[in-house]
Design goal:
Blueprint lengths: L17 H4 L3 H37 L6 H21 L23 H14 L6 H19 L5 H17 L2 H12 L8 H23 L15 H33 L4 H19 L8 H9 L6 H21 L6 H18 L5 H17 L2 H12 L5 H15 L16
Amino acid sequence: MAQDSAPQAPSAAPATPARALLPTLVPALLVGVVSSLVLLGVSAAAEQLQDVLWQNVPDALGVGRYSVLWMFVVLVATGIAVGLVVWKVPGHAGPDPATTGLDAPVLPPAVLPGLLLATAFMLAGGPSLGPENPIIAVNVSLAVWLGAKAVPRAPEQGWVALAEAATIGALFGTPVAAALVISEALAGRRIEGRLWDGLFAPLAAAGAGALTATLVSRPSFDLHLPPFGQPDWGDLLAALVIASVGALLGICAVYALPYVHGAFRRLRHPMLMLPVGGVVLGALAALGGHLTLFKGLDEITVLAHDPEGWSAGEFATMTVVKLAALLVATSCGFRGGRVFPAVFVGTALGLCAHALVPGVHPAVGVSAGVLGILLAITRQGWVSLFVAAVLVASPGVLALLCLASLPAWLLVTGRPQMQLRADGTAVR
């Protein structure tokens, strides 16, 4: 039988030589350590200020730390402080937070001090946002600026990838989350070489960032919920339903964002938008309680420590209030990210399902609720699965989450994202 003598094309992209990858290792490790230290430094400063605002001062004044009056006072004062930074500090604390996501823009160095200051005030004062978006923006901008001075010929996008990976690794205490984010970002691009060659330097940066954070602060996302064994059909049904409900709740916030954002934009000035946002957040905190304040990671630990400690109605109230607070804080101009508050929303939703139907295991409810909310808020499938799974640290829940992600993804795909363009319209 005749055979085709033409050479066959290789089935896989050629691997990058080791001599091309090795020079990227030291810059990646440096970016990882520095990015992690920036995050840890801002977080530590914010925690010190939080202790002053929410413990020392109210104790000295003889008012309740989380009384309705004091929550209003601190949230409005935080709005004023951040408003002053946005108004007066050079760079105006960066772009409108409703227009930014995990893929941060490269900002001029003069913008970064104001953005860090506004982020620290926000984290200490109690608005429902996390540090991820502004800290990623700061680290990306620093890496690009310093990298251009150290290695002028290196492409800017390489420094961006290193800083994003390093910060995500530090935020979650593991480089796996960064690898998942980068892999998802690369999925729609033409990749030169093999995937792991492209991940080599970012994974080194993420590992250095995660290890630095672990050695300094020992972060942990495990909620220590009651152990979950082997899943059954009831667990599968619960996961499918709760993840879908979480996705629908998240989509409600996504569709509301342009309208709420537009209402605050009509106030035109940051010294009106942010204090008014503080008033609204104070009212929400009065309704939902002090656990609905802040970024939410410490607060979900409190909820998970006693899943039976609140009624279904109280969990439902916290779910809706936290989601509304996330929406308001994003819309009125507080600098922060949406991932960590969304984790609180999903946790409260899952515990609400457990309170309504005791047969729903808390680990299944929490992980499925977080999965659904994060899919709607971030549109990052791998990160949503990763965060949902790491909260319960149970291998038996992984298969349930993979299946539960399917109907939840069908509900969110093709719909607007929780991010706006400069003209106020939703990104699709």
